[in-house]
C-alpha cells in the first residue's frame, strides 16, 4: 500500500509575486530534500493583495506560477498541489484555480473554486470574492496517481459545503486538499471542527495548507495548516507563522476505516 511523506507549506503571502514564489520554491525544495513526495501550497500563495491588482496581474500570476511549479515538480520528481491562485476568466474576472502537477511536470488536475466567499465574518472587513472571481461550475475530478493514490482538491470556503465532498468521494478520492486563507476569526471558531468533520464523514485524509498572519489592509489569516486522517485524528498542526509541516501518510488507513465502519456503502438517497 502507499506510504509517503507529505509536506504542507504555510505562508504569509503579500503583493510581491516574485517573493511569494521564491518562498514557495524554497519550502518545496526543503520538503523534497527531506523526502516529501506530495507537497501542498495554500490558497493565494503567489499573490494576496487588492482586488484591482489581482485582476490586472492575473495573467502574470498564473503564467509565473504554472511555469515554476511545472519545472520544479519535474526536476525534483514530486507531485505538487498549487492551492488557489487567480487565472484569467473569459468575462474580465478571474477563476480561483487549483492545479496538481505530477512528477513529470504535467498538469494532472485543474479545479475552479465553486463557492465564493461573500461574507461579513465580524473582523471589520467585508469580503466579496464574487466581485472579481467567476464561480466554477464543475465538481473536482480525482487524480489517480500511480505513486501516491487518489487525490482531489477543493478551495477554502468550499469546506463549508459537505455535499461537494460527497460528490468528490463518488469519484474515488482518498485524499482531499483544502488549500485555504481562512480568516482568523472564523478559523478560531470553525477550522479544526470542519476539517475533522469532512475527514470523518468521508473517511478520507484531509490536507489543509493555509495562509497565516497579517496581510494587506489588516486582513488576518488563521494559519494552523492541518493534516487529518480518516478517523478524524490530527496528525499535524503547523500552528502560526510561515513553516513547512511534514507528515507521514499511510494510505492503508483509508481502507481500514472504510472497512471498520462502511458508512459510504450505507448511504441512501433521501
Give the tags.
Nitrilase/N-carbamoyl-D-aminoacid amidohydrolase; 6-stranded mixed sheet; 6 helices; 16 strands; C-N_Hydrolase_sf; hydrolase activity, acting on carbon-nitrogen (but not peptide) bonds, in linear amides; Nit1/2_C-N_Hydrolase; Carbon-nitrogen hydrolase family protein; C-N_Hydrolase
- Report the order of strands and helices: EHEHHEEEEEEEHEHEEEEEEH
How far the N terminus sits from the C terminus, by CA atoms, comes to 35 Å
Give the CATH architecture: 4-Layer Sandwich
Low-confidence stretches: none
Q: How is the main sheet built? A: 6 strands, mixed
Task: Kindly provide the radius of gyration, computed on alpha-carbon positions and rounded to a whole number of angstroms.
Answer: 17 Å
Number of domains: 1
CATH class: Alpha Beta
- Report the portion of residues in β strands: 25-35%
Question: Topology, pairings included?
Answer:
Blueprint: E1 3-10, H1 17-33, E2 36-40, H2 51-56, H3 58-76, E3 79-88, E4 94-101, E5 107-112, E6 118-119, E7 127-128, E8 143-145, E9 149-153, H4 162-169, E10 175-177, H5 184-202, E11 205-208, E12 212-214, E13 220-222, E14 226-228, E15 234-237, E16 243-250, H6 252-260
Parallel strand pairs: 1-2, 2-3, 9-10, 10-11
Antiparallel strand pairs: 1-16, 3-4, 4-5, 6-7, 8-9, 11-14, 12-13, 14-15
Helix pairs in contact: 1-3
Amino acid at each position: 500500500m502507499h506510504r509517503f511523506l507529505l509536506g504542507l507549506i504555510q505562508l504569509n503571502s503579500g503583493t510581491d509575486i516574485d517573493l511569494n514564489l521564491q518562498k514557495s520554491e524554497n519550502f518545496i525544495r526543503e520538503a523534497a530534500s527531506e523526502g516529501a513526495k506530495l507537497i501542498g501550497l495554500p490558497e493565494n500563495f503567489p499573490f494576496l493583495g487588492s482586488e484591482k491588482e489581482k485582476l490586472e496581474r492575473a495573467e502574470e500570476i498564473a503564467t509565473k506560477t504554472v511555469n515554476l511549479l511545472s519545472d520544479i515538480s519535474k526536476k525534483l520528481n514530486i507531485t505538487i498541489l498549487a492551492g488557489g491562485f487567480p487565472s484569467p476568466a473569459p468575462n474580465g474576472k478571474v477563476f480561483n484555480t487549483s492545479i496538481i502537477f505530477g512528477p513529470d511536470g504535467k498538469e494532472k488536475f485543474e479545479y475552479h473554486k465553486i463557492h465564493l466567499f461573500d461574507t461579513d465574518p465580524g473582523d471589520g472587513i467585508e469580503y466579496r470574492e464574487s466581485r472579481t472571481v467567476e464561480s466554477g461550475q464543475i465538481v473536482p475530478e480525482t487524480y489517480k496517481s500511480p505513486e501516491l493514490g487518489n487525490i482531489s482538491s477543493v478551495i477554502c470556503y468550499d469546506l463549508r459545503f459537505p455535499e461537494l465532498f460527497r460528490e468528490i468521494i463518488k469519484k474515488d478520492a482518498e485524499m482531499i486538499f483544502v488549500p485555504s486563507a481562512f480568516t482568523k476569526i472564523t478559523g478560531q471558531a470553525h477550522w479544526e471542527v470542519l476539517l475533522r468533520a469532512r475527514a470523518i464523514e468521508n473517511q478520507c485524509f484531509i490536507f489543509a495548507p493555509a495562509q497565516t498572519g497579517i496581510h494587506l489592509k489588516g486582513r488576518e489569516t488563521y494559519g494552523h495548516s492541518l493534516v487529518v486522517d480518516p478517523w478524524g485524528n490530527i496528525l499535524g498542526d503547523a500552528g502560526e507563522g510561515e513553516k513547512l509541516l511534514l507528515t507521514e501518510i499511510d494510505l492503508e488507513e483509508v481502507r481500514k476505516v472504510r472497512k471498520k465502519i462502511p458508512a459510504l456503502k450505507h448511504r441512501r438517497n433521501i
